[in-house]
Amino acid sequence: MKMVTHFTNRAHALAITLLLAAGVIGGSGCAAVKATQQPGKKNLQVLNTGTPRTRVIAELGTPTWSEERGETAVDVFAFKQGYTKGVKASRALVHGAADVVTGGLWEVVGIPAESLADGTDVKVEVTYDAQREVSSIEIFEGQDAVTPRKWWRRKPMTSETVAQSPQATKQR
Which tens digits make up the pLDDT trace of 42-81? Predict the structure, then answer.
C-alpha cells in the first residue's frame, strides 16, 4: 500500500487556512484578556455617613495612611475604581469579535485602548466619629468616580436659562 506523502494544492491551502484561523482565534485575546483583567468596581456607598469603619476597609482595602485624633480616626485610601463584570465581559466580547473580523489586526488598537482605560485613580480621606462610623469624607482625586455626573442630567433651571429657552423666545 502506498502512503501519500504530499498534499494536493487544495488540501495544502485548506490546512494553512485552518492553522491561520486557529492562530487568530487562539492568539486573539490579548485585548480581550486585558479587558477581563481590569480592576473591579468598588461599592462607594460605604463612604456614606454612618457606615462602620470595618465595612469601609473591607470594601476599599487597607488604608494607605491612618491616624487617631482624640476620639476620631482618619483613614486615607488610594485605589482604582474599575468596571462591573458586565462591562468587562462586553468589552472582551467586542475585542474578540473585532479580532476575528480583522484577522487579528484589531490588537494594534485594542491593546493600547485597554491599557488606557484601566479605571480611575481615587484618593479619599475618611473621618470617623467616636463610634468608628463615617462622619465625613474629602476627595483628593477621582471626584467623578465617587460622585459621577449623569450625562443625561440637565443643568439646573435658573431664571436665565428659562429666559433663553426656545419656548420663552417664541412667546416674546
Answer: 999 999 999 999 999 999 999 999 999 899 999 999 999 9
Question: For residue 2, what pLDDT is reported?
Answer: 55
| Rounded Cα gap, residues 135 and 73, in angstroms | 10
E strand or H helix that includes residue 120: strand 120-128
Lay out the sheet containing 65-69: strands in order across: 65-69, 72-81, 120-128, 134-141
Pull the grid cell for residue 105: 489586526
Dist CA 130 CA 134 (whole Å)? 10
Strand partners, 78: 123
The C-alpha atoms of residue 47 and residue 146 are separated, in whole angstroms, by: 9
Which set of grid coordinates corresponds to residue 50? 454612618
Phi/psi of residue 135, each to 5°?
-110, -30
Residue 160 in grid coordinates: 436665565
